[in-house]
Structure formats: structure tokens, C-alpha cells
Amino acid sequence: MNLSQEEENNNDLSLSKFESMLKTNKVLFFDSEEFEDIILHYMDTGRMNLAKKALKLALEQHPKSTGLRLVHVEMLIFDDKLEIADKLLNELFAIEPTNEEIYIQKANIYSKKDLHEKAIESLETALKFTDDLADVYSMIGMEYLFMDQLELAKENFIKCLNEDTDDYSSLYNVVYCFDFLDQNKEAIVYLNSFIDKNPYSEVAWHQLGRQYYAVKDYNKSVWAFEYATLIDENFLGAYLEKAKAYEKLKKYRDAIECYTKTMELDDATSFALLRVAKCFEKLGLNSSALEYYKKTVHEDPLLDKAWIAITDFYIRQKDYHKAMFYVNKAIGIDSENKYYWKRFANINRFLSLFEEAEYGYRRAFELGDSTIETYIYWADSLKYLGDYKIAIEALLLGIENHPEHYQIEYRLAGLYYTLNQTKKAKFHLVNALKSNFKNQTIIKNSFPLVWDKKSVQKIIKNFNS
Asked: What is the value of pTM for the model shown?
């Protein structure tokens, strides 16, 4: 049995003994270190009432124990009783001025008060007395993170990892700093150097894969994730990321294999099911794609992205009636999504249901869609409904975001001619011809009666001469 197993067994025995004592109301003796382990266990597992009971008994049995009094400080800090904690620390400082835990707890108090620079000063003092440099460097890194000083945070997390390569929390934090600073290439250099010294760190390989993915080097990304899964064949996150990289490489069968592996390791997620469906569709295997799209919505009926994915599937198949059913499902979940309303409008336009299409484009516009297509198709729907004046209003809104866009200008010209507002019509027709002469067929196709007007043909002819 190794040391850590012995310690774990001893802790279990101490906990069982303590909990048995509470049930029988017998007062048993524990040494101070046993009490520290018991109290910290309860604090770590969120059972603060038991932690406080243990602390009370511990201080009764060992009133002068510095370790227990420091645990008391930690509990006071947890309860935001900072002034009492600070007073107790000052008493302990007078007794043991070289105890690093005093400076660490002082730093925790400063940190809670948002005095992060003072917290760092205290932690730097702790470095002089501690044997656990890694833990203190990690804490300094966190203080710099709180201050948004990412370079200094990164520097200290790296120092932590130089002392303890198994501190995965600091490894994640280092990568977070690189990411935040947009230093993906620098992160790749660091992680490669880290892996040179720690070749079996699956977390480092996984993070390296993420960095290669970020710089769009998908082949190397797959390579790194492959190592992560070789080291830990149950590394679900690495399989998931590898699948995404395979998708970027258009290796859809390999991606499906990786997504399927994640489902073997854990319950199928709607994300994985949805990605498998999309991969099958990319392979042209539509029946398998549809099967997985339906599995996705079965797994998570409130996942609007899945309903809209099925909508898009049927739009690509030009099966607009089925697409309409599924887009309504998506809108039922998120009725404030402009993209869903635009799909709703497009589907109705394809079905020549212009009243519904107009409503969809209007809702998309109200929710912030200002693309040229929305204004054009919205106006076209209104034109088909005979609402020429409202169609003009829609196009004038469009021209605010797309000044002198030829598609809007030609339509405005056609609508104004239809309403016999000749002066405005000529103005917009000339603007349209200036912007894009060759697309004058918009008038011919959308407004054939206007196209046949001699005055319109004359303007076009004169403009071209």
C-alpha cells in the first residue's frame, strides 16, 4: 500500500470515528492533525455545520494548536468574518512569524476585500517560508487574474508548473491567459516545451490540440488530440475536439467515429448527435442524417438549434412543407430569434404564401435583421399583396442601411412608377442605372408594365448612349 492510500484510509477511519462519536454523544480524543483533516474534509464537501462542530471540539481539546487556529481563520474568512479573522492572524503572527500559512490567510483576507496588490505582497512573503512554492505561485497568478494583469498571471502560473507539473488547474489557467491575450502561437511553443518534459500529460496534449485548432492547423490539431486519447483512452473531451477538427478537414467519417466514441464513454449529448447528423448529411447519407437529427430533438426537445437544423435539411431538399413544420418548432422555443423568422419568411415565400412571408420578414426586421435580402424580399412580398406604399416604406428603411443599393433603387423606381409618382420614380431609376446598369432586368422581371413604358425605355437608352 502506498503512502497516499494509507493517508486516505487513515482519514476515512478518523471521519468514521468522529461521526460515530456524534451519534453516541461520547467525547473521543483526536490529535490536532486528525481534527484538521476532518474539518477541512467537511469544508471541502460543503458540510459547514459538521466542520464547525469539529472545530469547536478541536479547539476544546487543543486550544493552543496553531494549525487548528489557522483552520479557524479559514472558516472565518469563508463566513466573511474578516475582521475577527485578521485579529486572530495578528495573534498567531506574534507567536509564529515564519509560518507561511499566516501570510496565505492574510492574502485571502486582502483578496476578499479586493486589495489584490496587498494580497500579492503577502503571498510573496509566504514564498520565503513555504516548501509548497507551486501553491503560492498559483495563488499569486489568481490575484493577477483578478486584476486583469494577464501577462503577470501567466508568468506566475508558469512558475507554478515549473514546481509542480501535475497542477492541471494552473495549466488550464496558463492556457486561458494565452487565449485571452490572443497568443495562440506562443501557447503552442510553451505547450510543446511543456510536453517535451512531460510527454504523458494528456491535458497538455489536449490543450495543444485546441491551440492548433485555433490557428486553423487542423492536421496538427488531430495529431495532438490523438496523443491525448492514446494516453487516456477515456478522454471524452479530446475525442470531441478531435471530431471537430476532422470536420474542418472534411473527414466526416472519422468525425462520426469520434463523436460515436464520446457516446460510448458517456450518455449521448444533443451536441454530438447533431454533429453526427450534419456529418452524415455532408456525406450525402440523408436518411442517416435525418435519423440523427430526430435523435437530437428526442434527446433535447428544447434545443432550438436542432429543430432549425432539420428545417435547413428540408429546405435543402426543397421540401418546404416539412421545413415549415420544423421552423415553427424552433420559433416556439425562441420567438425572438431573427434568423428563425427569416427562415420562416423564406419558406413561405417559396410556397407563395406572401402574407405569411411578409409577416416573417417584418418580424426579422423588428428583431434587428438589416440584411439587404430581408428588405428586398419583404418589399417583394408586400408588392405581391398590393401594398405598394408599405413596400416603399420597407425599401426606404433598407436604403438607410444600404445607401444607393441598386436592388433597392430599381424596386423603388418600379413602385413609384406603379403609383404614378413619376418624379420620384425617375430619380431612383437613374440612381439604379448609375449603380448597376446591367441589372436593369430587375424592372423587366418585377415590373413588366413599367418596363414597357416608353418614358422608362427612353431613360435607359439615353443613359446608355
From this structure: 0.81
